[in-house]
Amino acid sequence: MERRLDANARDALKDRFKLPLIAAPMFLVSGVDLVAAACAAGVIGSFPTVNCRTEDELDAWIADIRDRAARAADETGNAPAPWCPNLVVHRSNPRLMEDLAVLLRRKPEVVITSVGSPAPVLKQLHEAGVGVFADVATVRHAERAVESGADGLVLLTAGAGGQTGWLNPLAFVRAVRAFFDGPLVLAGGVSDGAALFGAQAMGYDLGYMGTKFIATRESMAKRAYKDMLVASRADDILLTRAFTGLETNMLRPSIVAAGLDPDDLPARGMIDISKDISLESRDSRPKRWKDIWSAGHSVSGVDAVTSVAELVETTRSEYQAALEDFERRISRNFRR
Fold first, then answer.
1. Most buried by CB count within 10 Å: which residue of 105, 261, 279, 318?
2. Is 260 left (phi over 0), alpha (psi -120 to 50) or beta?
């Protein structure tokens, strides 16, 4: 099936990036402030549409993001990077069709689909002129997304925060490159500019950065969550099925803070936290995602709570340094 984003359209998007980076869409974390700041800083800002309580709120969010991006463009003279909604296409999303209607009206340049095949929404989005990137965790799912006409793929690999993949990022990208020449995004383990540069050397076009964007002043995460990220490292990440039924990377310290033993969780299936913890007030019981928090292996790279602009600029400097170091190594190793 023909793709919406051809090579010329992809090049036009790249011209608006300061870095080949997407601020990953994160449940209860990515909001208007984070997305608008990311776009203004020159990286794609994305957000799950389910972060909005209603389709009317989603429409208002998009209008606000657009207005802020336009003001940033006027102030800097540079076109902002695209904003990108993330649409959960699984049948468990009761607002899928309502949110899709908003996106068809607002016409973002790109939409990322998650938790299922993009096929149910892809045709309508393409007809509206919207590019579609599909979030996939297996080679077979990647093949199916390409067959359905997806313009790009987000490869969910081992180390991604929240509901994660399990494939090695090197092996995954090489397997997909055997049948797909479109844009590929690495999700999992992008902790700095050097990792982003390495992702491109492997064959990815862009990287997701999620965990470090949680620890920005613009994210919707609680301050305690941000501070826990600063205090944690990769060894504090626990891969478990206990909270969602799917393999999910969670912060061990948040599990402990909720009164649970991270070393004694069910091997599979969902924990009913209201039954596992006896608290006087029903409202004070810990809740998945709100009180038991996710993070990826890249948490070792979180050393401070910063602004989005500072994070992007630091990552850009790291990326440039990695490029220069690579050029020196190549020159030294292959000189005659």
1. 318
2. beta
Question: pLDDT value at position 287?
Answer: 59
Spans of the chain below 50 pLDDT: 273-285
Within 13 A of 64's CA, how many CA atoms are on the CB side?
Answer: 13
The whole domain housing 268 covers 233-284
142: its two tokens: 């990647």
Round to whole Å and give the CA distance between 40 and 280: 45
Measured in degrees and rounded to the nearest 5, phi and psi for residue 199 equal -60, -40
Question: What is the pLDDT at residue 91?
Answer: 87
70-79 pLDDT, tens per residue?
Answer: 887 677 667 7
168 and 247 fall within a common domain: no
**Quick one: tokens of 137?**
């965790």
Query: How far does CA 232 lie from the centroid of its chain?
Result: 20
* Residues 110 and 175 occupy one common structural domain: yes
Side-chain-side CA neighbours of residue 81 (13 Å): 22
pTM of the model: 0.90
